[in-house]
C-alpha cells in the first residue's frame, strides 16, 4: 500500500465516498484512509468508481452532490448528538462516524417513512451500480481493466468483438414432467 | 397561417399495441403515422454494455412511483425490443376473474375461447414457438429440476425467439444484437413500413384535442436523442382516428393531460393499474448440493454457476394455475434473469444481523460475490388493480432524473391484503422448492426501497362491460370519445398470472376490425384483412367468423 494516495480530500468527495462505501464496503485504499472504513475485504464501491459515476452528469445527480454532502453532514451531526457521540472536528461529520453508525444512519435515511427517502435511495442506487455494473465505463473495457466489482461477481469476459456468446448453455435433457394441462401451443390451458 | 399536417390514423407508441395497429391499418389502405417517444435502434445499435448511454439505457425506461416502480420500453418497437420474449397465453380462469368489482372484469365477449383465434394470429405473425429441453438454459433447467425434486411440474415457456440464432448472451434487455429475438422490428413494423406507414422516433405525445369536425389534433414535443431531459418544440398532427398505445405507464397520463381539451375522461382512466402481481425472489445456490441432490452437471466441472448465461426466462412452474383454486391464490413461478444494476440492488441477504441492512453493506457484498450462483424466480400473482395515477407531470409521463432511463412518475400503489397474502404464499413456495435439501438460500426482493416493481404494467385504461370500472368498451374504444382507441397493456383488465405480451398482442389484433370500421365510418378508405406480416394466412382464416361481432355499428 502506498503511504497516502493522492486522493481527493475535498470534504464533499470524502463524504460521498463514505456513503458509497457504506453501500458496498471496501478495504482501505491506503493506511489512514478515512472515507473508506475498511469494513470488508477487497475493493468496494469507491474503488469501483462511485465518485466518477456520480460526477457524470448523465446520472442526473451531479448537480445535487453539494446538497447531498451538506445534508449528509447535517444528518450525521444530528445523529451524533442523538447518540451522544463526539465527532472529530477535523473531518466531515459523516466521515467521522464509524461504519456501524454510518450504516445505521443510511438505513434511517432510506427507510420507508423518511421524507428524503427517494433522494438517498438514488445515491445508493448509483453507488451500487458503480460496483455491480460499472455504469460509468464500457463493460468490456471495465473487465479488461480489472474492474473490482465485475471481477468479484465473476462476470465472464466477452469475445474479441466485445460481445458475449455462450455456446454451452443447456443441460440438454428433460428435467421435469410437464404440467398435464399444457396445450399444443405450449401454454397453460 | 400554416396548415396542420393531416393523416387518417395517428398511432401513439410503437410497441405491440401500436405496431399491430399500424401494420393492419396501413396494409388496409389508411395513411398511418406512428409517433414514438424513444429512439429508433436496430440490431447493430444493440450493445452489450452497462454504460449509461448505451442501448441498455437508451431503449428502456425505469419510472419510480409511490409504492410501485415500472420498467418499460422506450424505443421503436417498445417493450418487444427490451423484453424477454416469453409468450404464454393466459390461462382460462384469468378471463373469469372478478378482481375487486364484484363482477367479471373482462367483457362478456372475451374469454380464452374467443381470444384463442387472436392468439393464433399473433403466434403466426411474430412467430411464437414452443421450446424443448435443449433450448432450456442452465438456469431454466435448474429450476425445472428443483420443481421436479419437490414433486412439481415445470414447463419450457413458448417464446418469440429464433433459437437457431440465439447465442444465450442474456443481453435481451439491451435489444437483440443477433436478431434472434423476434421483436416487432422483425415482423409487424417492417411490414407496416412496407405498406407506407411512417414511424417518427423521438416524438413524445403530450396531449390530444378535439377538432370541430370530430377529428383529433395530437400535440407532440421532440426529444433530444442523447439526453431525454432535453426537449424541443414539436408540432401537431390532425387525424380521424387515434390509436393510443404508449404503454400502461403513459397512455393514461396522456389522457389525463388531455382532459382540458377533450372533455371528461371515464373514471377508470389512470385507475385499476395492475403490476401483473409481480415480485422477484433471489436464490443463492449451493453448487455442491445442486450436483449431489439434483444430479446436475455442466460437464466442465461446474454444476450451475450460470446466472449470466441464457435468454431470460425459459421454464415456469404452473401448478398453481388451477381455476378451481380461489382468486388471489393462483400464480406462476418462472425462472428469470435480471442484469446487474437494477437486478441486484433490491435482493436481500438472508442473514442480516440486527443493525445491518438487508439490501446493502458487508453481507450484501458477499452475496454479490456469489452472483453466478444466483437464480432469480419471478412470481406473477393476481393483484387487486390497486394502482392509481396522480395528476400528470408537466411533460411526458415522468420527471426525468437521468439523461435516460430513470424518472419519477405519479403512480401510487398500495398493495391490498390479498396481494400481500399472495406474495407471501408465493415466497413461501419458492423457499420450499429451493431450500429443500440445502439447495439454496432464498430471499424476496425488498419492497421497502422503491416499492414493488413490475416489468409488465397493465390495466390503467382497461376494457370492460361496466362503464364505472372500465375506460374502454369491449372493442377498445375510449368511452365518450369516439374514434380514440387504446390497444396497449393498459387495455388488459387485470393481472394475468403469466407474462402478458401475448395477451396484449392478441387483444390488439382483436381490436383492429373495430378500428377499421370506425375509420371507414369517418371516411377513410381502408379495409380489414391483411395476412400475417410474412404473408401467412392461416391466422386470418381462423378469425373470419369472429369479425361480424367486432364490426357492428
Keywords:
heterodimer, A: about 190 residues, about 0% strand, B: about 550 residues, alpha/beta, FAD/NAD(P)-binding domain, Cholesterol Oxidase, domain 2
Describe the protein's architecture and organization.
The complex is a heterodimer of chains A (189) and B (553). Chain A is mainly alpha-helical. Chain A is elongated and about 70 Å long. Chain A has helices spanning 11-23, 45-48, 50-54, 65-82, 93-96, 99-109, 117-132, 139-144, 148-152. Chain B folds into two domains: 1-125 and 173-277 and 385-413 and 451-553, FAD/NAD(P)-binding domain (3-Layer(bba) Sandwich), CATH 3.50.50; 129-159 and 279-381 and 414-449, Cholesterol Oxidase, domain 2 (2-Layer Sandwich). In chain B, helix 4 packs across helix 11 (501-521). The chains are: A mainly alpha (189), B alpha/beta (553). Chains A and B meet through helix 6 and helix 7 of A and helix 5, strand 5 and helix 9 of B.
Blueprint (SSEs and pairs):
The complex is a heterodimer of chains A (189) and B (553).
Chain A: H1 11-23, H2 45-48, H3 50-54, H4 65-82, H5 93-96, H6 99-109, H7 117-132, H8 139-144, H9 148-152
Helix pairs in contact in A: 1-4, 1-6, 1-7
Chain B: E1 5-12, H1 16-27, E2 32-35, H2 55-58, E3 60-66, E4 68-73, H3 79-82, H4 112-125, H5 138-149, E5 155-156, H6 188-194, E6 198-200, E7 203-210, E8 216-223, E9 231-244, H7 251-262, E10 278-285, H8 287-294, E11 315-317, E12 331-336, H9 362-369, E13 374-381, E14 388-389, E15 399-400, E16 406-412, H10 417-435, E17 440-444, E18 452-454, E19 484-486, H11 501-521, H12 538-543, H13 547-550
Parallel strand pairs in B: 1-2, 1-9, 2-6, 3-16, 4-18, 9-19
Antiparallel strand pairs in B: 3-4, 5-11, 7-8, 8-9, 10-13, 10-17, 11-12, 12-13, 14-16, 15-16
